[in-house]
Amino acid sequence: MKKIPIRGSEFAVFDEGDGPPLLFVHGFPLDHAMWRDQLAEFAAEYRVIAPDLRGFGSSEVGDVAVTMEQFADDLAAALDALGVTEPVTLIGLSMGGYVAWQFLRKYRRRLRAMVLCDTRAAADSPDAAENRLKSAEAVLAEGTEALARAMVPKLFGKQTIRARPAVVDAVRNVILQANPQGVAAAQRAMAARPDATSMLGAIDVPTLVVVGEDDVISPLEEMRRIAEAIPGSRLVVIPDAGHMSPLENPAAFNAALREFLQRPFKG
Ligand code: MLT
Fold first, then answer.
1. Which of 9, 27, 188, 233 falls between 20 and 30 A from 264, CA-CA?
2. Residue 73 in contact with residue 107, Cβ under 8 Å?
């Protein structure tokens, strides 16, 4: 991992390989390691860049207000620090997708294409936002154990829970080790995130939409509506996977990503 200073805090970024840059943006409350199967495969032909977002993994939370826009600003600053001037393909999962909407809004010229995985365009309902604020308080008071208990069963499809306990345990451990300050800041930031639905029809970068068939957090029907609203985009459904589709079925996920990278369809 490279260490990069951004606005007074230290950021950890995985950066390997040569070729067109791929920027992988992880979900909540995880870190770059959720992309391990993509980093291992695509580093042979692409420059694969996978940061730990502010407050996650080995990146410090710092003292700026955390928002989805701030995460996008951090990504742009990280690309600057790494000397990446070529437009990137941004691959974001769930919260990484919420960050992608903001990156698109502010840094359109830095994007070659987008891959939106298991994410949502809608903002939180008032109830969902209130639950997040409560969860942020609980994490600050008691740590991430209850969050791990609540989230892990929703992150994975039935097949993964039955047949791949090591994958489930690895994700649980990342949540248990997550920094409560970073987790709480991101919960509050997601509760306040803007609705991106009205942006979809104007998206003019090639976009692939990917969802695990058993995703209960960003369900297939919701992802289908996102794909239908984005001009020229395509939806790929990953079998035997829930919300963590790149980790749960890396062969199918990587095949879909590879095909898109070779022939991105223009919206
Ligand atoms: C994620 O995977 O990033 C989370 O499920 C996002 C969320 O809590 O909305």
1. 27
2. no
Measured in Å, residue 243 CA sits from the centre of ligand 1 at 9
For the record, the structure tokens of 202 come out as 């104007």
Q: Strand runs (DSSP E) across the chain, as ranges?
A: 2-6, 9-16, 21-25, 47-51, 88-93, 111-117, 207-212, 234-238
Find out whether 180 and 143 touch, Cβ atoms under 8 Å.
yes
For residue 180, give Cα distances in angstroms to 11, 164, 186, 214.
17, 27, 10, 29
CB atoms within 10 A of CB 8: 9
- Among residues 47, 38, 65, 34, the alpha carbon closest in space to that of 174 is found at 34
| pTM for this prediction | 0.97
**Beta bridge mates, 49:** 15, 23
Q: What pLDDT does residue 267 have? A: 42
Ligand 1 atom closest to the Cα of residue 95 is: 3
Q: Supply the pLDDT for residue 88.
A: 98
10-residue mean pLDDT profile of the chain (267 residues): values are 94 97 98 98 98 97 94 98 97 98 98 98 97 97 97 96 96 98 98 97 97 98 98 96 98 98 73
DSSP 165-210: HHHHHHHHHHHHHS-HHHHHHHHHHHHTPPP-GGGGGG--S-EEEE
With the most atoms of ligand 1 within 8 angstroms of its CB, the residue from 25, 28, 68 to mutate is 28
CATH (residue range 2-123+195-261)? 3.40.50.1820
Atom of ligand 1 nearest to the CA of 118: 2
Structure tokens that stand for 257 in this block? 């990503």
Sign of CA dihedral 155, 94, 3, 89: positive
